[in-house]
Design goal:
Blueprint lengths: L13 H12 L1 H7 L6 E6 L5 H12 L3 E4 L14 H8 L5 E6 L4 H8 L4 E6 L5 H15 L6 E6 L5 H12 L3 E6 L7 H11 L2 E4 L3 H4 L7 E5 L14 H12 L5 E4 L21 H5 L7 E3 L10 H5 L5 H6 L1 H15 L12 E4 L14 H4 L7 E5 L8 E4 L5 E3 L2 E4 L4 E4 L5 H9 L3 E4 L2 H6 L3 E2 L5 E5 L1 H18 L6 E6 L2 H17 L4 E5 L8 E5 L14 E9 L3 H12 L5 E9 L11 E5 L6 E6 L1 H4 L5 E6 L7
Parallel strand pairs: 1-2, 1-3, 3-4, 5-6, 5-9, 9-10, 16-18, 20-21, 20-23, 23-24, 24-25
Antiparallel strand pairs: 6-8, 7-8, 11-12, 12-13, 13-14, 15-16, 15-17, 19-27, 21-22, 26-27
Helix pairs in contact: 1-14, 3-14, 4-5, 6-7, 6-14, 7-8, 18-19
The structure holds N-carbamoyl-L-aspartate.
């Protein structure tokens, strides 16, 4: 039996992390006790490493154990095409623990499934690096006395930095506050934010970043907090009242630590690595308010920390690296002591999903092991019923990326339909009986021999002329409120909201003879959530949201969760001057407090009903209309 692994920081409970810290405090004793006497560790590093590998190897030797290794994985059987599954299986019969670093997200999880001994993730692609997080937390605790209530500023490449992802989840669990200072275009990924929110109740609020950006250029600060103020992110208008509440909320903030990271060039597409990047230097050290702020870095650094910081007592990154040895001694001792025990309560397991059909849903992350080496994986997901707007979400168990389920099918009756919130209970029933099929496309469902379910009769509640005049009226109102067309950005939520945004843009051009910028936002994507639609200029670079007047457009507002997710993405990507919301239909029920500023039509409707906006562009041969119908559960159909 394999025993305990450390793949994600979520594999350890807070209590266990504290136990590991206590063991690290007694590292000299672990050394004299020869706590790993007679055991062998294998290190498999498919990516470069200095600290992680050497500190693991040093830790094992100090515990009286020994180490075997491939000095270069390119010189191993990998070069002959061996899968990670086979490598893990074979090497686990030579060693008592595997320490693995790989360039694919989720690769270490896949290897753990084939290994017969504990596996430790020493970094998997841009995903996680949990043992680094143990060093980081230990360092913070040593310097600051505890973790709860600390405010940690994470800075730099938050998108690709795997150390950051493990760290923010851990900080949230220990009830620390997090301020993000992302380099332009390198904000925290959606899957990281979603887990922060769903599992730990953390949300983003934009922060008046003047005091931070004075010393760290090229960034915009965001505040992640579990408590009350996060509701501020839901205000669709960041007006002066909200802004002053935000200011007072952060003006008293004591910054305990700055956690700086390197630009992860190796994870960026060629030609996209050149943008500006924040640095910390003399200016930071001079500021009175940072007099007790320690500067951390997982290392290696490139040029984001100036040499002055090395000489200052607050620059503690070499100490942080030195803690790597006692912490990894403690971790190894902890895992060996666990023997064949299974995780205690570490991960809360939502519903696990695996397709009963030969074609299964595909993770959208191009660097996920399930795409890179399908033969070493089984496409498995957590099924979450809590997505924005009641969406059904699949979370890849290897790389954590999430995506929205469009089509569900019943494997027994071979029927399929579009997923809708009203089907939640039916789908849960199918899942329990392992009869739930999920498809990537209609084509795939039909290929597997599925036929469509029928829905109840439809009633048209808005016709083409009415939709047209609603768009016209909303456009007039927006123009009336917006004095500065230069600042204006019409941003539609994909797909229908984006089409409506384009129509509003075209209508503005008709009324004013000026074309506003139009963009679209995708809630469930793995990176690149924002895209310019017009002017369609491939040279124009990324859309700039800072100081813009944004009109967020969607077709229907119901629970409000879609809008909330969109606002999170917007505030993450550069702080606009204001965000207002325009919807064609308001169904009049909310789970979160968002209020549209422009409404085409109010259509109060029940949970069992579905309001669908059909637009020519999306439905091909249809005319524009809004229909309402009841959901007949497939069980009744
Ligand atoms: C980090 C890594 O490999 O993710 N290094 C480390 O383990 N200390 C950070 C980095 O490479 O930037």
């Amino acid at each position: 039996m394999p025993g305990r692994n450390l793949i994600s920081i979520a594999d350890l409970s807070n209590n266990e992390i504290e136990q590991i810290f206590e063991l690290a405090d007694s590292a000299p004793k672990l050394r004299s006790d020869k706590a790993a006497d007679g055991r062998i560790m294998a290190t498999l590093f498919y990516e470069p490493s200095t600290r992680t590998r050497l500190s693991f190897e040093s830790a094992m030797q100090r515990l009286g154990g020994s180490v075997i290794s491939c000095s270069d994985m390119k010189a191993s059987s990998t070069a002959k095409g061996e899968t990670v599954a086979d490598t893990a299986k074979v090497v686990s019969s030579y060693a008592d623990v595997l320490v693995v670093r790989h360039y694919w997200d989720g690769a270490v999880q896949a290897m753990a499934e084939y290994a017969d001994v504990p596996v430790i993730n020493a970094g998997d692609g841009g995903h996680e690096h949990p043992s680094q997080t143990l060093c980081d937390l230990y360092t913070l605790k040593k310097e600051k006395g505890g973790l709860k209530g600390l405010t940690v500023v994470i800075c730099g490449d938050l998108k690709n930095g795997r150390t950051i992802h493990s760290l923010v989840w851990a900080l949230a669990r220990f009830e620390a506050n997090i301020v993000t200072l992302a380099a332009n275009g390198m904000e925290l990924p959606q899957y990281v934010l979603e887990r922060l929110e769903r599992d730990y109740g953390y949300s983003l609020a934009p922060v008046a970043s003047g005091d931070l950006s004075a010393v760290v250029t090229e960034t915009d600060a965001l505040y992640l907090t579990p408590k009350q103020p996060h509701q501020l992110a839901l205000f669709t208008e960041v007006d002066s009242v909200v802004q002053s509440r935000l200011n007072s909320m952060v003006s008293g903030l004591r910054y305990d630590a700055f956690y700086m990271t390197r630009k992860q060039k190796e994870r960026m597409k060629e030609g996209t690595t050149g943008s500006s990047y924040p640095t910390i230097g003399a200016g930071f050290l001079r500021e009175q308010r940072f007099k007790d702020t320690v500067v951390m870095h997982p290392l290696p650094r490139v040029d984001e920390l100036s040499p002055e910081v090395d000489k200052d007592r607050r620059g503690i990154y070499f100490k942080q690296a030195a803690y790597g040895v006692p912490i990894r001694m403690a971790l190894l001792k902890f895992l060996f002591d666990q023997g064949e025990r299974k995780p205690l309560s570490g991960k809360q397991r939502p519903t696990r999903y695996e397709s009963p059909e030969r074609l299964a849903p595909q993770c959208p992350n191009a660097n996920c092991i399930t795409l890179k080496e399908p033969s070493s994986t089984r496409r498995r997901f957590d099924l979450l019923f809590t997505g924005a707007g009641g969406a059904l979400i699949l979370r890849c168990i290897y790389c954590d990326h999430r995506f929205k389920v469009q089509l569900v099918g019943h494997a027994k009756s071979k029927r399929y339909c579009a997923y809708d919130i009203a089907l939640a209970d039916t789908v849960k029933g199918w899942l329990r009986k392992k009869e739930l099929a999920i498809f990537n496309s209609i084509k795939e469902a039909e290929e597997l021999g599925y036929e469509p379910y029928k829905s109840g009769p439809q009633r048209t509640v808005m016709d083409e002329a009415e939709i047209h005049s609603a768009v016209e009226a909303m456009t007039r109102q927006i123009l009336g409120d917006c004095s500065d067309l230069e600042r204006l950005l019409i941003l539609g939520i994909r797909t229908k909201g984006s089409l409506l945004a384009q129509r509003i843009g075209a209508e503005m051009e008709r009324q004013q003879e000026r074309k506003p910028e139009v963009g679209e936002i995708e809630i469930y994507s793995s990176g690149d959530e924002l895209r310019r639609v017009s002017p369609a200029d491939p040279e124009a670079g990324p859309m700039n949201l800072k100081d813009r007047t944004i009109i967020l457009v969607d077709d229907v507002i119901y629970t409000g969760r879609t809008v909330k997710s969109a606002l999170t993405i917007i505030f993450q990507s550069g702080r606009p001057q204001s965000v207002r919301l325009a919807v064609l239909i308001d169904r009049g029920h909310r789970e979160v407090p968002v209020k549209p500023n422009y409404v085409g039509k109010n259509i109060p409707s029940s949970e069992r009903e579905r309001v669908r906006v059909k637009l020519r562009e999306a439905e091909h041969d249809e005319r524009d209309k809004v229909v309402i119908y009841s959901i007949i559960s497939p069980a009744e159909a």
